[in-house]
Design goal:
Elements: E1 2-7, E2 10-13, E3 18-26, E4 33-39, E5 46-51, E6 58-60, E7 68-73, E8 78-83, E9 92-99, E10 114-115, E11 119-124
Parallel strand pairs: 2-11
Antiparallel strand pairs: 1-3, 3-8, 4-5, 4-9, 5-6, 7-8, 9-10, 9-11
Length: 125
């Protein structure tokens, strides 16, 4: 099993940038495909990005392509989400998640085995 802790959220002006981190402990990060999801109040949690165990393959929701970048450093047991050109509609709680069953990241929320507590991102217009 693995424990996940997100950090790096905050209040940012539209057009600004943030880098979110997901620090993991327990079993080595290299055993998991990883994903980032987000949830705004009153809305369903939605897929943002995923990355394979090796970091060689990534996937992004259409709404964030070209603006968000997911990466991982297995030696540091940390996953990152670089967020550029922030828009007000990016405002949400951002969660990282770990999937032990697959080598490649997946978009399906229910496939992930472990979740962090989330970090709030707020974008002002």
């Amino acid at each position: 099993q693995v424990q996940l802790v997100e950090s790096g959220g905050g209040l940012v002006q539209a057009g600004g940038s943030l880098r979110l981190s997901c620090a993991t402990s327990g079993r080595a990060l290299s055993n998991y495909a990883m994903g980032w999801f987000r949830q705004a109040p009153g809305k369903e949690r939605e897929f943002v990005a995923s990355i394979s165990r090796s970091g060689r393959s990534t996937d992004y929701a259409d709404s964030v392509k070209g603006r968000f970048t997911i990466s991982r450093d297995n030696a540091k047991n940390t996953v990152y989400l670089q967020i550029n050109s922030l828009k007000p509609e990016d405002t949400a709680v951002y969660y990282c998640a770990a999937d032990e069953s697959l080598r490649v990241g997946i978009r399906t929320l229910t496939a992930y085995d472990y979740w962090g507590q989330g970090t709030q991102v707020t974008v002002s217009s």
